[in-house]
Amino acid sequence: MVNEEQVMQALQTVEDPELEISIVDLGLIYAVRFEDREEGKHAEIDLTLTSPGCPAAPEIMAAAHRAALQTDGLDSVHINLVWTPRWDPRVHATEDARMDMGIWD
Predict the structure, then answer these.
(1) Would residue 12 count as lying in a domain?
(2) How do residues 70-85 score in pLDDT, each as one tens digit?
């Protein structure tokens, strides 16, 4: 049975093209929810971006969709672009990602 950890592993391969850091490490994935549908297992993924005006939004969302679909046991995926809570690297990013961005706190 597919779980959130497996989906997050698949999403780990997707990088923000400007920062060259995984969207998982940046903390851009807010939630992964599963639904059983007639056509199989479905995932709803809440993803945010580093800024509302991010020019790479379509690229990141498409890459996240493709990566999540590679998860064994998952038949369909929908990426929801969300803005709440507002992304803050000091709150959402991993320690390694913060160091890569030069955030030392």
Answers:
(1) yes
(2) 999 999 999 999 999 9
